[in-house]
Amino acid sequence: MSPQRTIVDQVSGWLTVYNDGFVDRTWTGPPQFKFMSDPVPPHHNFIHGVATHDLFIQPEGDLRVRVYLPEVPDSGKLPIILHFHGGGFCISQADWFMYYNTYTRLAREAGAIVVSTYLRLAPEHRLPAAIDDAYSTVLWLQDLANGKAHNPWLSSKGDFNRVFLIGDSSGGNIVHQVAKKAAQENIHPLRLAGAIPIHPGFLRSVRSKSELEKPESPFLTLGMLYKFLKLGLPEGSTRDHPITCPMGEALRGLDLPPYLFCVAEEDLVIDTEMEFYEEMKKAGKKIELLVSNGVGHSFYLNKIAIDVDPKTNEETHKLIERICHFIRNHY
């Protein structure tokens, strides 16, 4: 008889790690929130002005993306938004309802094709696995741009000269890592026109004032944050690792694209996010700041709050509007 499986680590509501390596990501939190993590099947027909398609992007391997195509007049090529989902590097998928709800809206309002990568998750696949998947998607877009690969939607309608990186929470960390890597390599004829980290998980081993004083939310508690990073970062790393603490890195020599850096006033990690913003400015990088007032981490993904709270609804509208403006004004 095999020994009984025992729990070795846990993030309440989100995931349980067992001694045999199995990870259970069954949602065990309040049932009224479960729908936000339910997968939305792809649909090739246009629903509310957007069609979606899932596909594998490597001849061998299981790396997948979800593509969102807006139904717009045939008015030329569309910008491409490459999205990296959040989840502390440990949970969530590109097809979760909360991402579908957000990125169908962004595809429609920005008039852009969205490509969202199904990133490998920790602790089974610790960092840099998710960053590797994200950058592999950039290289796939490069292959589409130079004709080495073909996709009916992107090849005919995508503008590979206007590619924007966007990421939520830990996906914002990935945006910066991918932008750095692309700045050091030749991705021609693909061109990154901009990068949009939204509420990235930038922090240090020493807790900031905002970590100690800001209110916790259903989307982020300190316990959740620290546990996810412990499970996600390379073995033996601390929160001072460059993926989570890029404020300590040299930025001057990097040819980074323009950034739209999005933070939330009540986010637990806003102090260290602002450290990064100040370091980018000191290094002479092009970076715009959007502060969402009176709301917390990843507020715009919470459909319940958007529907019932006028403040969340208003700030979500402002966020989407500013992202659309940034995309329209960077070529």
How is the secondary structure organized here?
Blueprint: E1 7-11, E2 15-18, E3 23-24, E4 50-56, E5 64-70, E6 78-84, H1 97-110, E7 113-117, H2 129-145, H3 152-157, E8 158-168, H4 170-184, E9 192-198, H5 209-213, H6 222-232, E10 259-264, H7 270-282, E11 287-292, H8 303-308, H9 310-328
Could you please describe the fold and organization of this structure?
The protein is 32% helix and 20% strand. The N and C termini lie far apart (63 Å). The chain has one domain (39-328): Rossmann fold (3-Layer(aba) Sandwich). The chain has helices spanning 97-110, 129-145, 152-157, 170-184, 209-213, 222-232, 270-282, 303-308, 310-328; strands at 7-11, 15-18, 23-24, 50-56, 64-70, 78-84, 113-117, 158-168, 192-198, 259-264, 287-292. It has 331 residues and is α/β, with parallel strands linked by helices. It is globular. Strands 4-5-7-6-8-9-10-11 form an 8-stranded mixed β-sheet, with helices on both faces. The chain has a 3-stranded antiparallel β-sheet with strand order 1-2-3. It is built from 9 helices and 11 strands. The mean pLDDT is 95.
